Amino acid sequence: GGQSWLSHATLATGLWSPDQRTYGAALVSGRQSLFHIAQQNGFETVAVMPAITLDWPEADFMGFDRVLAADDLGYGGLPFNWVTMPDQFTLSAFEERVYKSRQARPFFVQIALISSHAPWTPVPTLVPWADIGDGQIFDEVAQSGDPPEVVWRDRDRVRDQFRQAVDYSLRAMGSFIARHAEAPPLFIVLGDHQPALFVSEDKGFDVPIHIIGPPDLVARFADWGWQEGLIPASDAPVLRMDAFRNRFLETFSSVSP
Q: How far, in Å, are 69, 212, 253 from residue 20 at the CA level?
């Protein structure tokens, strides 16, 4: 719980990494991640990581051409406690610093959205995309509401704050995708882990995944068993994170150039 990098590595490498020891072994094993394979097939690979505030040497083993950490994204606003910047700014920075600069090569990008990370207070609000600038527009909200030490005295309130934070994150992503609806990329929106048990009230470890994009690309996932809408049925199929890499490669690989 809370060790997001284990989920990220498991998804990208197809190797089950439940702890730090196996995570380190996976990185140095020479295993090709989805990003290595994308590199070898002409994609520019980028990691947009607003939570990275220190050196991240592990990135050298993951297959990224570029890593944009917190200091590289140009955020001039106030943090939301642990959350360095709201998701809408992260997406705006990706759009300005990566997406608009694309050349002939296509992109294969990992974007970490962290507004749904604890302590879930304060919860950002959406602003007009054209007004985002360096992010100081978010300062008023960043200074609003009760601090974590007040919110976390009440477990019911913590659960509600988590709900609001996830709602915000999905709204920010939905608004961003709508901005690119005329020529949409393929988006895979993935929850990397559940919150603490008293928040999730779910003893399992399942997380949602959404596939959004051009109909022809989304159609390739037809035999995965996906369902329409945001909320899966109780009998929806469950795929382990370490199975995603190979299944994705089988779905999108081609003998054509």
A: 21, 32, 31
DSSP label of 180: T
Return the closest-CA partner of residue 112 out of 15, 250, 229, 11: 11
CA gap 88, 94 in Å, rounded: 10
DSSP annotation of 1: -
Contact 62/27 with Cβ under 8 angstroms? yes
Cis bond upstream, residue 119 (ω within 30): yes
* Euclidean distance between CA atoms 102 and 198, whole angstroms: 43
Q: Quick check: helix, strand or coil at residue 69?
A: strand
- Cα gap 221→148, rounded to integer Å: 41
pLDDT of residue 204: 83
**What's the whole-model pTM score?**
0.95
Q: Which residue has the tokens 């995570």?
A: 23
Q: Stretch 202-229: mean pLDDT, rounded?
A: 91
Per-residue pLDDT reduced to its tens digit, 103-123 = 778 999 999 999 999 999 999
In the block, which residue shows the tokens 């390739």?
Answer: 220
Question: CA-CA distance, 50 to 117, in Å (whole number)?
Answer: 12
- Measure the CA angle with vertex 75, ends 98 and 182; round to 5°: 40
User: Which residue blocks in 42-154 are alpha helix, DSSP H?
Assistant: 87-97, 139-142, 148-151
The secondary structure element, H or E, covering residue 67 is strand 66-69
Q: What is the pLDDT of residues 148-205, one digit of tens each?
A: 999 999 999 999 999 999 999 999 999 999 999 998 999 999 999 999 999 999 888 8
Please state the length of the chain: 257
Distance, CA of 216 to chain centre = 23
Does residue 27 contact residue 6 with C-beta atoms inside 8 Å? Answer: no
